[in-house]
Amino acid sequence: MKPLSRTRILISLIPILVLIFLLALDVSIFGSDSILGASQVALLTAAGVCIWLSMWLFKTPWKDFEQAISSNIGNVTTAIVILLLIGAISGTWTMSGVIPTLIYYGVQIISPKVFLATACIICAVVSVMIGSSWTTIATIGVALLGIGKAQGFSEGLIAGAIISGAYFGDKISPLSDTTVLASSMNGVPLFKHIRNLMITTVPSISITLVIFLILGFLHQNTDAAQISVYTEVLGSKFHISLWLLVVPVFTAFLIARKCPAIIVLGLSTAVAAIVAVIAQPHIIAEIGGKITEGSHAKILFAGIVETIYNSVSIPTGHPEVDSLVASRGMTGMLNTIYLIICALCFGGCMNASGMLRHLASLLIPLSRRRTALVAGTVVTGTVLNGIVSDQYLSIILTGNLFGGLYSKKGYAPELLSRSIEDSATVTSPLFPWSSCGMTQATILGVATLAYAPFCFFNWISPLMSIFIAATGYKITRS
């Protein structure tokens, strides 16, 4: 390597080191709330350092940075609309009774010997439906933790089953912001990305369930029945009916027909809103009545609009159930969008300055073989979770670092997006200092180091990604 190249690589590391330092400081001060603004400040500060160094040392013109930032943000405008619609679905599916119905019937299938596997499956189903591991863990996960403790399971083991299922859904749900981000950042259509993910995700969750089944049958259980509280409260507040499942069935039909993601999410939101007025008029009226007065129709309209765009909670008299039926709405997605835009600014500056290219040159030896390339991607996504403490940043940075290498070797972009999801998305809760690790530990009241060994899905997914790459199974060229 030439001295100049070595010097440029060292200079290119400075913005990364500044970002790591600021993010670590933010997490130590703000904890999981750092994602609400402090992380964004760190990203923009690091971007500023990148611009200053590049304009001073590399003589990069300012317009190059403007064009790179504009191009980066322009590439994810569709993803931003999808994220807003995900927030809308969160509200309409909850207030229409779809999510409460799924939970109501789902939790009643728990049996002692298959509790761990069942808990994993329930969290997986709920997470796929709502697209959020955090919401799943903070709601049904908390309920399942109490039931499991009553049956004599260790807290770490229960939390491992809950987190494994929740991150399965977070990884493959079309409603998940990480799924949308990983696909859009790498130019892969959302549902094509999800279909490709199944190649590694299905074997990973299957092995995970087998492990939990074995552990469940080896466990000496005790009597437990806390679930009736949840079903009674949900049944008294919402009109629970299997007919409400027409909404997810309709959504699944649209997905099967390969409709564009925005159309699927938009129509699903509209249908759920109509169902909410028909099946839960008292809920919608309660929401609308806090906003306006007048005719019943006016109040219902206000309630539906509020449900779609705003974060809404319904008091049930039971705090844990209250969090279960709270929704985010479109405004609940703004912090994620805010973070993505700031991360794209940083990535654009690193790209325009050439610093990203210099850092990527260190990874060129990994591109000689397919397995090494995928393994490098998986390791990078995992390590970045430990360094930058945020899965969104890990997804974006890993994509930026490896995008050129995959393209140069002629691999289809869905291989990159899958490798990123198999690592950056699912390993995020395994680090005690990361935003995900701190959040899950706080919500469940279980230390990260106590549950991490039992998050089998989160450990198996990265390894499965490398294994599938080694076999060459359905590895396509662009």
Considering the chains and any ligands shown, give keywords for the structure.
478 residues; mainly alpha
What does this structure look like?
This protein has 478 residues and is mostly helical. It has two domains: 3-72 and 336-471, no CATH class; 78-332, no CATH class. It has 24 helices and no strands. Helix 2 runs parallel beside helix 17 (334-353), helix 17 crosses helix 20 (391-409) and helix 19 (370-388) runs parallel beside helix 21 (413-425). The longest helix is centred in the middle third of the chain and has 29 residues, at 190-218. The protein is globular, with a radius of gyration of 23 Å. The mean pLDDT is 83.
Q: Characterize the largest beta sheet: strand count, sense, and whether it forms a barrel.
A: none
Our estimate of the beta-strand percent is under 5%
Tally of separate helices: 24
Order of helices and strands: HHHHHHHHHHHHHHHHHHHHHHHH
How does the helix and strand content classify structurally?
Answer: mainly alpha
Give the uncertain stretches in residue-range form: none
Number of strands: 0
From the alpha-carbon coordinates, what is the Rg to the nearest angstrom?
23 Å
Instruction: Sum up the overall morphology in one term.
Output: globular
Q: Number of domains in the coordinates?
A: 2
Q: Into which percent range does the helicity of residues fall? A: over 70%
Cα separation of the termini: 31 Å
- In round numbers, the mean pLDDT is 83
